């Protein structure tokens, strides 16, 4: 039974996803502090959070069973990603589910700011009919600058276009071509602050974006502009903004997020007449909460069941087009690495991944974490290694990884050959996905075989001579071990050969030792794919 801790308020409809998996138990315990989480996290396989729970290295260290942290939302600045990677914990988010909701909230804030709606509401319900103080401004014909042209920034830009606004944008990862298609004029931050009537930020909070708008930018800003932050507290320098408001450079600001959340009761934003605030409500609609919760719950189930998943934050992203080509080879790569590690003596120094066929024409780097996971699982144990930390663990052990590609003209089948060089030897195996049968080990060193990558097999190196197969069968039979299938590969009559015996039951070390005493047998290795 997998145990999942939900430590922030998450949509019940989303959590229902877990009931479809009958081996998952969900506990909802919200509002815990770091010490309280540390005390209980050791029981859980997965932690599901929004932005309130700060997932610190200490929590991860205590989370000895923790395989995945799911963030039902976009920003993962509340999770220590470096620590998660080193503890081998996969961090996933739900990047798409709250895009529209947050762009709508940004727009609600912009309109409220332009028309003083919160201030007017407060006065009106207090019994004052004040139609003079709250003269607003139109959005039509104004310049809106969007800093961060990702999912939310672009949706905000779309809506602003419909309101007749001119859009400027800044995003170092956004091309002129994309900008042209979206009707956005790209500009530097300096150009933007001199021209924009409204600025809205939609970047993540990183070292580069912290105080992206600060004293220096306010000093050259268009007088009377308005500022919106529905992304993360800290992207706009709060203190510098207060000064700019007092100096009349900024006419008003709308903030959904704060440098410290929740802000202290005496935070100056809460009392300022020209600042409107909401308590981090950007993603808070029924639709968005359901979307992100369903999304992240589905991925958590996949991860717990060792199935392919998406939206990992602490692993390099694989573009969709490449993913569809390479994903079928993930399990094959891992199983080949696993087989090879069990066949090789000595400490691993180098792992070589050699691909042929169509695989030789695409980027095979995404296979590396899977191969290394397979290789290191044998040495470190399945609980210690996963695809998030396998590259990191290999680096710590000075294992080098080399990618090679066999040209298409030489080989047309999609094959993956993994070599391991250790302190004492070099061995290699080849795998492929064969039509109608699926993943198969197709070569052990130079010997052709065809073996499914599951269960237990014995890999026996021997001399090709009569009687060996019978002796092996007899010895296994005497020990009550049923042979499911057997294959022999050799390159020449009477030369070296390999025998692959698929067995239905685990063999003991003694049986392996006895097998090595049969004349002509050079080496016996048990390969267990279900490690
Ligand atoms: N208030 C709320 O409740 C919510 C807040 N957010 C915040 O909004 C942010 C944006 O979300 P999405 O649009 O979904 O993310 P996204 O990843 O699609 O877009 C972020 C964009 O920022 C750009 N960027 C990165 N560094 C930059 C820099 N130095 N200068 C300018 N642009 C830079 C990236 O290139 C990317 O295009 C998230 O990081 C999250 O923190 C997201 C959802 C709800
Ligand atoms: O998705 C995000 O990045 C958000 O900021 C939303 O945060 P929340 O899930 O509402 O705590």
Describe, in short, the structure shown.
With 531 residues, the protein is α/β, with parallel strands linked by helices.
Q: How would you describe what is shown here?
A:
The chain is of the alpha/beta class and 531 residues long. It folds into three domains: 123 residues, NAD(P)-binding Rossmann-like Domain (Rossmann fold, 3-Layer(aba) Sandwich), CATH 3.40.50.720; 179 residues, NAD(P)-binding Rossmann-like Domain (Rossmann fold); 208 residues, 60s Ribosomal Protein L30, Chain: A (2-Layer Sandwich). It contains 18 helices and 22 strands. The chain has a seven-stranded parallel sheet, with helices on both faces. The chain has a six-stranded mixed sheet with strand order 14-13-15-16-17-18, with helices on one face. A hairpin with a 3-residue loop joins strand 15 and strand 16. The longest helix is centred in the middle third of the chain and has 19 residues. The two termini are 19 Å apart. Bound molecules: 1,4-dihydronicotinamide adenine dinucleotide (NAI) and 2-oxo-3-(phosphonooxy)propanoic acid.
Q: Care to count the β-strands?
A: 22
Helix run count: 18
Structure ligands? 1,4-dihydronicotinamide adenine dinucleotide, 2-oxo-3-(phosphonooxy)propanoic acid
Which strand order spans the largest sheet, edge to edge or round the barrel? 8-7-6-9-10-11-12
Any idea what the radius of gyration is?
A: 30 Å
Helix content, binned percent: 25-40%
Low-confidence stretches: none
* CATH 4th-level superfamily of the largest domain: D-3-phosphoglycerate dehydrogenase, domain 3
* CATH topology name of the largest domain: 60s Ribosomal Protein L30, Chain: A
CATH class of the largest domain: Alpha Beta
Distance between the ends: 19 Å
The main pleated sheet reads as: 7 strands, parallel
Which of globular, elongated, flat, extended, rod-shaped describes the shape?
A: elongated
Average predicted local confidence, pLDDT: 94
Q: Can you tell me the CATH architecture of the largest domain? A: 2-Layer Sandwich
How many distinct folded domains?
3
């Amino acid at each position: 039974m997998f145990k999942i801790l939900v430590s922030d308020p998450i949509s019940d409809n989303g959590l229902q996803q877990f009931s479809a998996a009958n081996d998952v138990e969900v506990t909802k315990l919200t509002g815990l502090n770091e010490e309280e989480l540390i005390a209980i996290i050791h029981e859980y396989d997965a932690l599901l959070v929004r932005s309130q729970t700060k997932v610190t290295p200490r929590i991860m260290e205590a989370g000895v069973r923790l395989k995945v942290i799911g963030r039902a939302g976009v920003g993962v600045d509340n999770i220590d990603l470096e620590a998660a990677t080193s503890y081998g914990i996969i961090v996933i988010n739900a990047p798409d589910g709250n895009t529209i909701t947050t762009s709508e909230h940004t727009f609600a804030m912009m309109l409220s700011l332009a028309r003083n709606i919160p201030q007017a509401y407060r006065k009106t319900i207090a019994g004052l009919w004040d139609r003079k103080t709250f003269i607003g401004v139109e959005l039509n014909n104004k310049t809106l600058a969007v800093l961060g042209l990702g999912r939310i920034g672009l949706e905000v830009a779309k809506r602003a276009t419909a309101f007749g606004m001119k859009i400027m944008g800044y995003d170092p990862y956004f091309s002129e071509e994309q900008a042209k298609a979206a009707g956005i004029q790209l500009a530097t931050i300096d150009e933007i602050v001199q021209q924009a009537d409204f600025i809205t930020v939609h970047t993540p909070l990183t070292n580069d974006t912290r105080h992206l708008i600060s004293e220096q930018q306010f000093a050259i800003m268009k007088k009377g502009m308005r500022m919106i932050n529905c992304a993360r507290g800290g992207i706009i320098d709060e203190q510098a903004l207060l000064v700019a408001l007092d100096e009349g450079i900024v006419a008003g600001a709308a903030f959904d997020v704060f440098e410290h959340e929740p802000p202290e009761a005496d935070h100056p934003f809460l009392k300022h007449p020209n600042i409107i605030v909401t308590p981090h409500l950007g993603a808070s609609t029924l639709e968005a909460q359901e979307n992100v919760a369903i999304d992240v719950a589905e991925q958590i189930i996949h991860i717990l069941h060792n199935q392919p998943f998406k939206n990992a934050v602490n692993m390099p992203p694989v573009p969709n087009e490449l993913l569809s080509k390479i994903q079928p080879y993930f399990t094959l790569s891992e199983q080949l690495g696993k087989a090879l590690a069990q066949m090789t003596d000595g400490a691993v120094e180098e792992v070589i991944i050699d691909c042929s066929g169509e695989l030789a024409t695409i980027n095979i780097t995404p296979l590396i974490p899977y191969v290394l996971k397979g290789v290191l699982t044998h040495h470190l144990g399945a609980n210690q290694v996963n695809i998030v930390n396998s590259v990191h663990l290999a680096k710590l052990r000075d294992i080098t990884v080399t990618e090679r590609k066999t040209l298409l003209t030489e080989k047309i089948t999609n094959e993956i050959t993994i070599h391991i060089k250790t302190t004492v030897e070099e061995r290699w195996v080849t795998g492929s996905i064969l039509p109608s049968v699926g993943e198969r080990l197709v070569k052990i060193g130079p010997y052709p075989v065809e073996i499914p990558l599951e269960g237990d097999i014995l890999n026996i190196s021997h001399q090709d001579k009569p009687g060996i197969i019978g002796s092996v069968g007899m010895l296994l039979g005497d020990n009550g071990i049923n042979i499911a299938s057997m294959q022999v590969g050799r390159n020449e009559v009477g030369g070296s050969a390999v025998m692959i015996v698929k067995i239905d039951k685990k063999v003991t070390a003694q049986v392996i030792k006895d097998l090595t005493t049969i004349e002509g047998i050079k080496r016996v290795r048990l390969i267990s794919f279900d490690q």
